[in-house]
Amino acid sequence: SAHRGFGGVVPEVAARIHLETLVPLIDEALRRAGVEWADLDAVAVTRGPGLAGCLLVGLNTAKTLAFARGLPLVGVNHLEGHIYANWLVPEGATEEPPEPRFPLLCLIVSGAHSDLVLMRDHGDYLRLGRTRDDAAGEAFDKVARMLGLGYPGGPAIQAAAAHGDPTRYPLPRAWLPGTYDFSFSGLKTAVLRLLDSIGAPVPVADIAASFQDSVVDVLATKTAQAAREHGVAQVALAGGVAANVALRERVRQLVHVPVIVPPPRYCTDNGAMIASAGTYRFRAGERAGLDLDASPVLPLS
Ligand code: KG4
Ligand code: ZN
User: Fold this and answer.
1) Which of 49, 69, 200, 215 would you label with 31, given CA atoms 20 to 30 Å apart?
2) What is the atom index within ligand 1 of the atom nearest the CA of 270?
3) What are the b/e assignments for 69-99, b being 16+ CB within 10 Å?
4) 155 lines ligand 1 (CB under 6 A)
């Protein structure tokens, strides 16, 4: 990735790369899917939240394509895209996945968000909680950097943690009782202090496992509490951190209703999830005008 050397995403670099790669990427996607423009019903595009430059490049490309090909345009929230990755038709499958069962609780955990959202119907979202500081994925990325692991940090920590003892270092858990909010900055600081106190050699696997256990414990426990309190029919995981195996397992242990999770490659950012959410909006009759605007801070509801 172009961002690897920076340990994160650089907005200007990201917008420029979007501009250079988007049109060839769309051609390649159509070719690989064996689909012609004439087979398409609509163009779905991310309106936000996200980096302004990237959103603008995407939005303007989508508007141009929709106009030039005479296709309707549908705007999608990036987080809604993550949620709808759960209802993508799996590769090789011929049938659509089962419809969502409402009310549904969704834990959205990505590099920028950690939200607990109650979904009462398609497009109907109530945010129960959010992170007060770092997002879960951001914590994975920062701790991975402290441990000298690569970017993105989530997969690197998960791999290192597989050989580690999660009970070796009891790290803090910010429960924030009485709320469904999260906080991960204290945990990050605790790892930094732990590293200072240990010195070399760094027991990378044990620290990665202890850190992952702390994040997963809080996310899964609060998700289970919210699922019980709101009597949901289903729990869905979404966002890059939903690819984490320990998180998937712990949520399945603690939650008393069926848990759905997208295939790992559709948890991290992808275009298919935007098409999935766009399909629901399109079927519900939604059509955006060419004045559709981008919003870097677009809320889910
Ligand atoms: O949803 P996403 O692709 O991008 C945003 O919208 O932010 O999420 C990226 C985040 C990164 O912080 C990355 O470290 C994390 O998802 N991530 C993981 C795993 N795979 C990706 N975190 C924990 N375990 C994983 N296996
Ligand atoms: Zn994302």
Assistant:
1) 49
2) 3
3) eebebbbbbbbbbbbbbbbbeeeeeeeeeee
4) yes
- What does the pLDDT look like over 225-261, one tens digit per residue? 999 999 999 999 999 999 999 999 999 999 999 999 9
C-alpha span between 170 and 66 (Å, rounded): 53
Tell me the CA–centroid distance for residue 38 and ligand 2, in Å.
29
* CA distance to 36, 46, 62, 155, 224, per residue, from 40 (Å): 7, 17, 13, 34, 39
168-204 pLDDT, tens digit each: 999 999 999 999 999 999 999 999 999 999 989 999 9
Mutual angle of helices 204-229 and 136-146, in 10-degree steps: 170
User: Which protein residues have their CB within 5 A of the ion that is ligand 2?
Assistant: 110, 269
What are the pLDDT digits (tens) for 25-46? 999 999 999 999 999 999 999 9
For residues 200 and 221, what is the distance between their CA atoms, to the nearest angstrom? 34
- Rounded to a whole number of angstroms, the CA Rg of the chain reads 20
pTM (2 d.p.): 0.93
